[in-house]
């Protein structure tokens, strides 16, 4: 996997909000090759969306500051690049899809014009060529009667159709990297299936790398080649989809999987993760999951490094793998 | 099955979608002629996608809105004709949990006042008895009695949903209806609330009616499931059986669209294309025929009625007997021993964590 230069190499990304004692996103590193799909999975407030916004250079004008790290994308460091450099990359080499298409589309512009605008902005082509490309893209995302849709406004479309328009717009300039932040969360399950199917096929056709941000492990298993599990601003476990699902190591990953109701088999009582995520003002120095972790002990007061267990499977836990750490069931009662 | 505690007969609700100055108003038939029998003590789930009428049905069942036609029978009495004191008495026995714990709790009331309000309204107990009851209810949903003096904004989403549950349980209801009670919550918090709902149901012998779009939660929590499409129930049956072998093509399409969180599992399939038709002018015949991969001529003209195709299973589909539909079976691979052991260790350590007296106050709810 490492023979060639990765398309995106994020290293040590940290983001801090003014007044917080510790970074909201802390030392996040990952790489992504062309054609790969990385899913960043985690619950509300884990920093998965902030990571995406930082890569897109969209944190300017917010109280959030990038504190450190680099994100090399085709010889450009996205974290230190000027706004004009980023502006020429965004919507061209790197595109982004957001959760709620209604708030990301301009309600006053016909969808054909919105897509054409993205093309003309970066390609400088004529109005007609932009419109032709818009039509081509609408057909590509399988919008029925695409030609007549060109002149419709976003409110005339259903949620699923709007998300297709967003995807058409994002892919109009053949980006090398597509970042999708919860692209199907607002959609019904049958519509979600259509969009996931579309994104997988388009990824295959265009060869674009994808970063998909989601809270849904089902979507992860469906889409990902690689997975990064985030908790409270840190990557706690990362690896291939097989490594994460077939050999989960971090207690948070175990807890997350145990919390999920099964779709088949018997309905046992769910094994939960106790408590809630620490607040951003109150992040511990050590392992950020320790307060909710059934295996936590004094060792967890120091921040666990993300270590490579084998073949790229990285875990940030002092006790991993749990079965070798001498932690027996019920150890806590005797401790 | 025990005697039904709640029944619907021909339940219909129409809304005016658009009333132009001249000409006819356009009408949405949100719920269309639904018959339902809910047994005492069961967990009954209603599933369907946006706009299928599931929330309207829940509100009709609890008489939060009035039916256009048909009736709801609670414990042998038609509740659609109740008013005044009789309706208030019904509210004691039938309570509602809302989806959004941020908008359903009055931000200017303390948690104690919120949970105690139903007791006050129904004049149950003396003020000191009510305070004790509030403390007990808070403990039951995993909060602490001293939380009674705080305000909703001081709590996380999961904690607020617990407050909503405590409030719903205050009057000692027999039926609790939850409209997407865990949909707004993160997975780990959702699991906590699902467990609380199940515990309380057992403890108080509640009948639970859960509206949801998350099929995994439904599969876990429900005894029986009704699947809705465009205002009608298209399939009804035992949850485990219905998930393993659906009888209606729409149920099959729903199940095939769920992404399964495991490697090597089947990928999502798009058995149906496009969006649901406009409910203002639903298609003739079977309402699903425009998207149904199996539709035949009969389906385009003749409306199928719900009929029993097996013990306890009803389906509204002309072709039910002829189709062999795919459900969700055996999605879980057997884990390698070391990984299974790891999950067992997590589960045991987690159990030990809540058992030890230190940790109950430690991290359960801060």
TrEMBL record, chain A:
Keywords: ATP-binding, Cell membrane, Membrane, Nucleotide-binding, Transport. It is found in: Cell inner membrane. The keyword Cell cycle does not apply. GO terms for biological process: peptide transport; transmembrane transport. Pfam families: ABC_tran, oligo_HPY. InterPro entries: AAA+_ATPase (IPR003593), ABC_Ni/Peptide_Import (IPR050388), ABC_transporter-like_ATP-bd (IPR003439), ABC_transporter-like_CS (IPR017871), Oligopep_ABC_C (IPR013563), P-loop_NTPase (IPR027417). It is a peripheral membrane protein. Residues 8-257 form the ABC transporter domain. One of its GO terms (molecular function) is ATP binding. One of its GO terms (cellular component) is plasma membrane. The keyword Nucleotide-binding applies. Belongs to the ABC transporter superfamily. This is ATP-binding cassette domain-containing protein.
From TrEMBL, chain B:
It is found in: Cell inner membrane. Residues 6-255 form the ABC transporter domain. It is a peripheral membrane protein. Pfam families: ABC_tran (PF00005), oligo_HPY (PF08352). InterPro entries: AAA+_ATPase, ABC_transp_ATP-bind, ABC_transporter-like_ATP-bd, ABC_transporter-like_CS, Oligopep_ABC_C, P-loop_NTPase. GO terms for molecular function: ATP binding; ATP hydrolysis activity. SUPFAM superfamilies: P-loop containing nucleoside triphosphate hydrolases. One of its GO terms (biological process) is transmembrane transport. Gene3D superfamilies: P-loop containing nucleotide triphosphate hydrolases. GO terms for cellular component: plasma membrane. Belongs to the ABC transporter superfamily. This is Dipeptide ABC transporter ATP-binding protein.
């Amino acid at each position: 996997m490492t023979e060639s230069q990765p398309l995106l190499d994020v290293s040590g990304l940290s983001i801090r909000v003014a007044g917080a004692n510790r970074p909201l996103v802390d030392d996040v590193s990952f790489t992504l090759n062309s054609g790969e799909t990385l899913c960043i999975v985690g619950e509300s407030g884990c920093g998965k969306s902030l990571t995406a916004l930082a890569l897109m250079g969209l944190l300017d004008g917010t109280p959030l500051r990038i504190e450190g790290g680099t994100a090399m994308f085709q010889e450009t460091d996205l974290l230190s690049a000027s706004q004009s450099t980023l502006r020429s990359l965004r919507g061209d080499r790197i595109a982004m899809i957001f959760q709620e298409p209604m708030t990301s589309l301009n309600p006053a512009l016909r969808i054909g014009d919105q897509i054409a605008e993205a093309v003309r902005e970066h390609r400088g082509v004529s109005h007609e060529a932009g419109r032709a490309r818009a039509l081509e893209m609408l057909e590509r995302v399988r919008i029925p009667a695409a030609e007549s849709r060109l002149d419709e406004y976003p409110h005339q479309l259903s949620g699923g159709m709007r998300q297709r328009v967003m995807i058409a717009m994002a892919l109009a300039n053949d980006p090398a990297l597509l970042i999708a932040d919860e692209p199907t969360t607002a959609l019904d399950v049958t519509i979600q299936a259509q969009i996931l199917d579309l994104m997988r096929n388009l990824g295959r056709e265009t060869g674009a790398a994808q970063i998909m941000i989601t809270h849904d492990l089902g979507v992860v298993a469906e889409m990902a080649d690689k997975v990064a599990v985030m908790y409270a601003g840190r990557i706690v476990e990362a690896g291939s989809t097989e490594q994460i699902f077939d050999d989960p190591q971090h207690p948070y990953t175990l807890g997350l999987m145990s919390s999920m109701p099964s779709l088949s088999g018997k309905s046992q009582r769910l094994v939960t993760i106790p408590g809630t995520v620490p607040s951003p003002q109150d992040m511990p120095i050590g392992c950020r999951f320790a307060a909710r972790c059934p295996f936590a002990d004094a060792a967890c007061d120091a921040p666990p490094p993300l270590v490579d267990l084998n073949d790229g499977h990285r875990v940030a836990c002092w006790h991993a793998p749990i079965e070798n750490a001498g932690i027996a069931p019920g150890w806590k009662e005797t401790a | 099955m025990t005697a039904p505690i709640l029944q619907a007969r021909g339940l219909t609700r129409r809304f005016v979608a658009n009333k132009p100055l001249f000409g006819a108003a356009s009408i949405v038939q949100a719920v269309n002629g639904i018959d339902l029998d809910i047994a005492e003590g069961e967990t009954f789930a209603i599933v369907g996608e946006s706009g299928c009428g599931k929330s309207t049905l829940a509100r009709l069942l609890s008489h939060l809105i009035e039916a256009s036609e048909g009736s709801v029978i609670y414990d042998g009495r038609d509740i659609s004709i109740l008013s005044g004191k009789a309706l208030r008495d019904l509210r004691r026995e039938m309570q509602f949990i809302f989806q959004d714990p941020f908008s359903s709790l009055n931000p200017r009331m303390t948690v104690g006042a919120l949970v105690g309000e139903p007791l006050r309204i129904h004049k149950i107990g003396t003020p000191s008895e009510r305070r004790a009851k509030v403390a007990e209810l808070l403990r039951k949903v995993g909060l602490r009695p001293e939380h009674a003096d705080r305000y909703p904004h001081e709590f996380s989403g999961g904690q607020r949903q617990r407050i909503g549950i405590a409030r719903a349980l205050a009057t000692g209801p027999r039926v609790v209806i939850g409209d997407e009670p865990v949909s707004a919550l993160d997975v780990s918090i959702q699991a906590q609330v699902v467990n609380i709902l199940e515990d309380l149901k057992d403890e108080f012998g509640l009948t639970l009616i859960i509206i949801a779009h998350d099929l995994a939660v439904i599969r876990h929590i429900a005894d029986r499931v009704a699947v809705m499409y465009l205002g009608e129930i298209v399939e009804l049956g035992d949850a485990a059986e219905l998930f393993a072998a659906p009888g209606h093509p729409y149920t099959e399409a729903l199940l095939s669209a769920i992404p399964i969180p495991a490697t090597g599992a089947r990928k999502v399939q798009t058995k149906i294309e496009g969006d649901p038709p406009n409910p203002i002018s639903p298609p003739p015949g079977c309402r699903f025929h425009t998207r149904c991969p199996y539709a035949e001529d009969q389906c385009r003209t003749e409306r199928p009625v719900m009929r029993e195709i097996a013990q306890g299973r009803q389906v509204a589909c002309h072709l039910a007997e002829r189709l062999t539909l795919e459900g969700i079976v055996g999605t879980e691979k057997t884990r390698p021993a070391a990984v299974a052991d790891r999950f067992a260790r997590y589960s045991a350590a987690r159990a030990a964590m809540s058992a030890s007296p230190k940790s109950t106050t430690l991290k359960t709810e801060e």
